[in-house]
Design brief:
Layout: H1 7-32, H2 34-37, H3 47-71, H4 76-102, H5 111-155, H6 196-203, H7 217-229, H8 233-251, H9 261-283, H10 290-316, H11 333-350, H12 352-358, H13 366-392, H14 396-424, E1 427-428, E2 437-451, E3 461-472, E4 502-503, E5 506-508, E6 517-523, H15 534-542, E7 546-551, E8 559-561, E9 564-566, H16 584-599, E10 611-621, H17 623-634, E11 638-644, H18 652-655, E12 661-665, H19 680-695, E13 700-705, H20 736-756, E14 771-773
Parallel strand pairs: 1-4, 2-5, 6-7, 6-10, 10-11, 11-12, 12-13
Antiparallel strand pairs: 2-3, 3-7, 8-9, 13-14
């Protein structure tokens, strides 16, 4: 019938077939039965990419392995390699599945069905592990048997002859179908020149030989099916003759598949991918752009299959080379680069979400996916060509010449990769220092008493987004730093962390602590939004103060009203800084702050009865600091105003404040009053600050923070920004978190002083050596 294999090898091969059957049932159920897939943990990539080719290749290999076991003439080595290939594909899918389970992907959809699927995955994993153990023992047993035969041949006096002499192999004695027989000379190189181990290994069949080679998978499967069908009467014999013709002409002919293995792999992968695309089109459909989706799915599916088929054919020899042409010692660099580009496609596809997050390039369309895949493929091909070029050059000038572009590419890839990882690494705001936990709630309010002069369309009432931080009675899961469209507040790309990885210390909708709490109205700088001062707001709230953070609509780079993003306008965010001094924009911002202080008194819900707005303090940064001073000047309830590195503008500069004020600045910026102006801008700032202080009757607390710059007073200090770019981002050499801690401590001390009668903010060289008085 066929060649006799050791029982241990046949047993291991049947185990692999059983594992393939179990996997096929599992993969079919979790991909094709919607009722099951809807509850599975593995509904997304990279599982989808992995299973897209394993669910085809595993049953195909399992079936071919079963045919060869039943009716073929396989060598033991072929059976073992086939089993290992099946096991590797099953293991790849199982690993992807278990990662999804460990991450609890779609855990809210699991239910009882999902847990049963996880149990089924555990059964499959155990079966794969048992199959791997059986294959390992079979490999060890077959190796021991072959070595035993080779040693027995040595003891009977067999020797390896020198020169080009050889003895034709006997297939019945050939243990692995390689054309070699233990104890018979086939070598063309003197055994003495290679050592006894090489001679024994060669006689054991581990070195390939030409002349009467074993059948490859394609012809053995065709032969086996033909032998089985030939027993089924006239139709069976006709089919057997047809299969023989396919084997002789289609597979092994002059222009057959065996001579064009790569073309066969490409066309076969395209055909299968096209078939799957058609099946998906008939089932779930291809969306609004079916042609583009069909082309993309077919191309990507073919690349995924090809990336798996090429190494499988190289390992198993599905179509084994049979001509007399010498096997090239090494593939050309372009051929290797081509395969690297193809193999990069499934990798880019499987991890497109992660790669898109690292590169700040969300893959939201077929076009963006195509560009991402193309960039990754070109990069993989370029690196392969350069690496092989450097490795294969023997002369050092050529190596050095190729090493330069390789080093540049690696440096660029490494830098982008490093920035990408830092871009997505979680970061936390500095912890609040007060005794209260912190809650947070957001409101969209409309001031029906004002027509918005900054709106793009005249006649609209002024709308504001106001975030409120408050003392909470209990903790919980921290609220996202920038939910929804608020994530677009920052546009640094890879040069800063994603806002959705920044962790806060406030809980959305937490119960309010017992009691009534004084109010601070917080205004950001021009272009910024209230959420970008979360660290300061959380610290104030932890000390028993309600904070209403106002985002100035049409002035902030990103505002979100009623769930929709709102962009700035030229009137709200003028490009000419001189327009900030004309008073019109300042009047709008000051009115925004006073409106928030009035409106929060009438707020309902969880905050009702907990806000004491009879005494209000205004705090602002940059232009928001000027607005805070002006709002305090116009509001009789104001008991104090804090200006964080903001140039004073408006009538308050001439009339001054009766309430206390905190001027917190950076060394030499003239805002706190300590500077020697050297240009017109700083002379203007010094004059405005001096006029404000001279006209004010209330106390002024003036301090500078050494090492700080303009944006160290914001949450920018908690963002990741490469140190080399701190100057461009107006961040000073002080540690970002440290700058926030110092700022929060002095603003909180000032707020407690004016709202609760606490001690005033004072120098503390032991705790805050960075703070110096402005003179």
């Amino acid at each position: 019938m066929g060649e006799q294999q050791p029982p241990v090898v046949r047993r291991a091969a049947w185990w692999a077939v059983g594992c393939a059957v179990l996997f096929t049932a599992f993969a079919f159920g979790t991909t094709q039965i919607r009722a099951l897939r809807a509850h599975s943990p593995w509904q997304d990539d990279p599982y989808d990419v992995v299973v897209s080719f394993t669910q085809l290749l595993v049953p195909a290999l399992g079936l071919a392995l079963a045919v060869r076991l039943v009716a073929g003439r396989p060598a033991p080595r072929d059976l073992l390699r086939g089993g290992r290939a099946v096991l590797a594909l099953v293991a790849a899918t199982a690993v992807a599945d278990w990662i999804a389970v460990a991450l609890r992907t779609h855990a809210d959809l699991w239910g009882g069905t999902g847990r049963l699927l996880v149990a089924a995955l555990a059964v499959l994993t155990l079966a794969a592990g048992a199959t791997g153990l059986v294959l390992h023992r079979a490999t060890a047993g077959a190796t021991a048997l072959v070595l035993h035969r080779a040693t027995a041949g040595d003891r009977t006096g067999s020797s390896v002859q020198q020169g080009n002499q050889g003895i034709a192999p006997d297939r019945d004695a050939d243990p692995d179908g390689s054309g070699t027989v233990p104890g018979r000379a086939v070598a063309t190189v003197p055994a003495g020149s290679r050592g006894r181990g090489a001679a024994v290994a060669e006689r054991a069949g581990s070195l390939p030989q030409h002349g009467n080679p074993a059948p490859d998978w394609a012809e053995d499967v065709l032969d086996g099916v033909g032998r089985v069908t030939a027993r089924c009467g006239t139709p069976g014999r006709a089919l057997a003759r047809a299969l023989a013709w396919v084997r002789r002409v289609v597979v092994g002919g002059r222009h057959g598949l065996r001579r064009h293995r790569l073309t066969t792999a490409v066309l076969g992968s395209l055909a299968v991918a096209a078939g799957m695309t058609v099946a998906e089109a008939r089932g779930d459909g291809l969306g609004a752009q079916p042609v583009a989706a069909a082309v993309a799915r077919t191309a990507i599916g073919a690349a995924c299959l090809l990336a798996a088929v090429v190494p499988i054919n190289a390992y198993l020899g599905v179509l084994r080379r049979r001509d007399d042409r010498p096997v090239p010692a090494r593939r050309s660099a372009l051929a290797c680069a081509g395969y690297a580009m193809v193999a990069s496609v499934p990798v880019a596809l499987a991890f497109r979400a992660g790669v898109g997050a690292l590169l700040d390039y969300p893959v939201t369309s077929w076009g963006r996916l195509g560009r991402l895949v193309a960039v990754v493929a070109v990069l993989a091909g370029l690196l392969t060509v350069l690496l092989l070029g450097v490795r294969r050059r023997r002369r050092w000038p050529a190596k050095a010449l190729l090493s330069v572009p390789l080093a540049i590419v690696l440096a660029v890839v490494g830098t982008v990769g490093y920035l990408g990882v830092r871009h997505v690494l979680p970061r936390s705001l500095p912890a609040p220092t007060g005794p209260y936990r912190v809650g947070r709630v957001a409101f969209d309010w409309t001031d029906t008493g004002r027509v918005d002069p900054l709106a793009p369309h005249p006649g609209r009432h002024r709308e504001l987004s106001v975030w409120v931080w408050y003392p909470a009675a209990a903790g919980g899961r921290p609220a996202p730093y920038a939910p929804g469209h608020w994530a677009g507040m920052l546009s640094f790309g890879l040069l800063a962390n994603r806002l959705d990885v920044l962790r806060t210390h406030s809980v959305a909708g937490a119960p309010v602590a017992a009691g009534r709490f004084p109010l601070v109205v917080l205004e950001p700088g021009l272009g910024l939004a209230a959420p970008q001062f979360s660290a300061l707001a959380e610290d104030l709230a932890s000390h028993g103060i309600v904070v209403a953070g106002v985002t100035p609509t049409y002035s902030a780079n990103r505002t979100v009203l009623n769930g929709h993003p709102v962009a700035p306008t030229a009137a709200g965010n003028p490009a000419d800084p001189e327009r900030l001094n004309d008073g019109r924009l300042l009047a709008v911002w000051a009115a925004d702050a006073r409106f928030a202080a009035d409106r929060i008194r009438r707020v309902g819900g969880r905050l009702a009865g907990h806000v004491d707005a009879r005494r209000v303090a205004y705090v602002g940064h940059s232009f928001g600091g000027a607005a805070a001073l002006q709002a305090c000047h116009e509001d009789r309830r104001c008991v104090g105003a804090a200006d964080l590195d903001g140039t004073p503008y408006g009538p308050v500069v001439r009339t001054g404040l009766a309430a206390p004020m905190l001027l917190l600045g950076t060394p030499g910026d003239c805002i706190a009053g300590a500077c020697h102006p050297t240009d017109a801008v700083h002379r203007e700032i010094a004059a405005a600050s001096g006029s404000l202080r001279a006209a004010s009757t209330g106390p002024a607390f003036r301090y500078e923070i050494a090492g700080a710059e303009h944006f160290n007073f914001t949450d920018y200090g908690a963002y990741y920004v490469p140190s080399a770019l701190h100057g461009l981002a107006q961040l000073g050499p002080i540690d970002g978190d440290r700058g926030l801690v110092v700022t929060d401590a002095y603003v909180t001390a000032f707020a407690r002083h004016v709202l609760r009668g606490g001690p005033p903010p004072a120098l503390d060289p032991h705790r805050f050596p960075e703070v110096h008085p402005a003179r």
